[in-house]
Amino acid sequence: MPPPAKPPPPHKLELTTNSLRNTTMSVKNDAIHYEIVTRFWHPHVTKINKADLENLVVTTVAEIERIPGMEPRVRFGGDKGEWVLATDFVQLDEDRAGGTFTGNANVKYRWQTRKGHLQLVKADDEDQIPVAEYHPHRRHFFVFRMSKHAFFEIKPIPEIIEALERLITSYLLVERRRRQSQMRIKLEKARSSEA
């Protein structure tokens, strides 16, 4: 009797840079390839492009618009999609970094922080088993070039793979808020030490 089949390994979606405005997310063989880009002639619009490298086709799947003084907006489906307020797409947590959004199959997902790293879990999962987990980059001696790029470890569940555009867009919104809150805390500490 043959041994039971092993579960498929998780997808490792690697980020090329630490930027939230200009980076690439892809697996090793480029079967899944997303480009996050903010052009200098459109500095307030970040586009998420999906690249099909076999057919040499690049498609805009989502956009995030951040105009100073206004609330960020999100649009899926390229130019044909409707703009939606980012707060309607991702319900951000008030007290900590994280938020809830709805995937393609009306499944609710929650970004949460565990040990300082973001994890994506199903909102109704009592065991809080992550379906996607962010692993930050590492540097040589904590200063020099990256020794290991940041990556997402994504479970090969079909509903997650189908909702990848929404996962990436929600990650960009949640991570931007997390980084801004960290910067705000550093500025408050610097002001209090000067006083």
3D structure, described in words:
The protein is of the alpha+beta class. The chain is 21% helix and 36% strand. The chain is built from three helices and 15 strands. It has helices spanning 86-89, 158-162, 164-194, and strands at residues 11-15, 23-26, 33-37, 45-52, 57-65, 73-76, 84-85, 91-92, 99-102, 108-114, 117-122, 130-135, 138-139, 146-148, 151-154. The strands form two sheets. Strands 7-6-5-4-3-2-1-15-12-11-10-9-8 form a 13-stranded antiparallel beta sheet. A two-stranded antiparallel sheet has the order 13-14. A hairpin with a 2-residue loop joins strand 10 (108-114) and strand 11 (117-122). The longest helix is centred in the last third of the chain and has 31 residues, at 164-194. The protein is globular. The chain starts with 10 loop residues before the first strand and ends with a helix. The relative contact order is 0.16.
Q: What number is the mean pLDDT?
A: 83
Number of helices: 3
| CA-CA gap between termini | 74 Å
Structural class: alpha+beta
Task: Give keywords.
13-stranded antiparallel β-sheet; 15 strands; alpha+beta; 3 helices; two-stranded antiparallel sheet; 195 residues
